[in-house]
Specification:
Layout: H1 3-10, E1 29-30, E2 36-40, H2 45-50, H3 57-69, E3 77-80, H4 94-112, E4 116-119, H5 121-129, H6 135-138, E5 143-145, E6 148-150, H7 156-161, H8 170-186, H9 201-204
Parallel strand pairs: 2-3, 2-4, 4-6
Antiparallel strand pairs: 1-3, 5-6
Helix pairs in contact: 1-4
The structure holds iron/sulfur cluster.
Length: 205
């Protein structure tokens, strides 16, 4: 089984009610040998239209955050808990998340075998940790899931709703988190993706 074959199968999936309202299945994209896999909650409007993950405003902010830390988007793999857009961007229901992760995300993780997983936001964290969590309490902590390092971060959509850059703000904490993540990636021993550029938090956000 390859990722391409799995993606082809997923594109015709009708295993949960989200199939009825989606335009496109957003399977995920990126480096199939990625050391880092980012997992969000689910596709939004732009993602549904294009079939690509994290291409709307939140995705553009994620790109800026990755770029500022020197982590090329093409070096990682990006996906979501559910592959079809929930109506009006509601949170995926537990049965939708369970069905979709069982069918697709679990298999993506088996094929990619990342060394670090970054779940973005509470919904993604809850899948990996198996319980309700407060993202503000667990972000920036090194946890573990099935022997893989887990490093929860705020979802960029949350950062868009909380634009303050003051010390202790979600954006400030995310800036600290992405630098910690880059350090961890570089310590994995493979070719460093790129040197960290000197950027100010102001230019990042
Ligand atoms: S959300 Fe997942 S399980 Fe539901 S129809 Fe889409 S691909 Fe299938």
């Amino acid at each position: 089984m390859s990722l391409e074959l799995l993606a082809a199968q997923a594109r015709t999936c009708t295993a949960c009610r989200l199939a009825a309202t989606r335009l496109n299945v957003v399977f995920g994209e990126g480096n199939p040998d990625a050391q880092l896999m980012i997992v969000g909650e689910g596709p939004g409007e732009e993602e549904d239209k294009t079939g690509r993950p994290f291409v709307g405003k939140a995705g553009q902010l994620l790109d800026k955050i990755l770029e500022a830390a020197g982590i090329p988007r093409e070096s990682i793999y990006i996906s979501n808990i559910v592959k079809c857009r929930p109506p009006a961007n509601r949170v995926p229901l537990p049965d939708e998340a369970k069905t979709c992760t069982t069918l697709w995300l679990n298999k993506q993780l088996e094929l990619i075998r990342p060394q670090i997983i970054v779940p973005l936001g509470a919904t993604a964290c809850e899948y990996f940790l198996g319980e309700k969590v407060s993202i503000t309490k667990i972000r920036g902590q090194w946890l573990e899931w099935q022997g893989i390092k887990l490093f929860p971060m705020f979802h960029p959509a949350y950062l868009l709703r909380n634009p303050a850059r003051t010390p202790g703000s979600p954006k400030h904490l995310t800036w600290l988190d992405i630098q910690e993540l880059k350090k961890a990636l570089d310590s994995l021993g493979e070719k460093p993706s790129r040197a960290i550029k000197t950027v100010s938090q102001e230019s990042l956000f």
